[in-house]
Amino acid sequence: MAKPTKVEIPQELIPYLDNDPEKKVTLLLIFELYREEKLSLRQAAEILKISYREMEDLLKQNKVYIPFGSADLEEELQYGFSSE
Fold first, then answer.
1. How far is CA 38 from CA 31, 44, 50, 60, in A?
2. Which of 9, 25, 26, 56 has a CA 20 to 30 Å removed from the CA of 36?
3. Is 17 in contact with 24 (CB distance < 8 Å)?
4. pTM
């Protein structure tokens, strides 16, 4: 497993990061990597240790959307037939 990387956050940004800056920055990074299609929905869920459906809800709550393509459809179909 990769060693975590520490990042310094400018003091001016701290008020915008809620009560848990580390968690907020992690979520924002995951959201952006998902938008850039560098992470799949399932990968994002695994990183956060939540279910696929919880990840879908989290993305929707935070208005994070990307186009739904054939790979997404395949993943949805596989999820529907798995016993998660």
1. 10, 10, 19, 18
2. 9
3. yes
4. 0.72
- pLDDT by residue (tens digit) across 24-67? 999 999 999 999 989 989 999 999 999 989 999 999 999 998 76
- CA–CA distance, 28 with 40 (Å, rounded to integer): 15
Domain spans of the chain? 22-81
Identify the CA nearest to 22 among candidates 11, 10, 12, 9.
9
The enclosing H or E element of 24 equals helix 21-35
Closest by CA to 13, choosing from 22, 2, 5, is 22
24-28 own/partner pairs: CB under 8 Å, 24+ apart: 27/58, 27/62
Angle at 33 between CA 31 and CA 38, to 5 degrees: 140
